[in-house]
Q: What sequence folds into this?
């Protein structure tokens, strides 16, 4: 499993890291400088974690998803 996250305050990073520890997921921040296309292709299951701002997906996460 691959957990991709954005965390403005660290709370979402904490939750993503729980995935990493509890179910042996690979955990990556969208702000990391890596080849996400390759990571996503290699994953059999993907979790997307982000904080909820005004009941919406944060703009940074929407832009990330639109560009992959």
A:
């Amino acid at each position: 499993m691959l957990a991709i996250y954005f965390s403005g305050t660290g709370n979402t990073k904490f939750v993503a890291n729980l995935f990493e520890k509890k179910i042996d997921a690979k955990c990556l921040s969208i702000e990391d400088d890596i080849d996400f296309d390759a990571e996503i292709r290699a994953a059999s299951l993907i979790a997307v974690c982000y904080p909820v701002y005004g009941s919406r997906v944060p703009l940074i996460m929407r832009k990330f998803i639109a560009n992959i």
Q: What stands out?
A: The chain has a mean pLDDT of 92. The chain has one domain: 2-67. The radius of gyration is 12 Å.
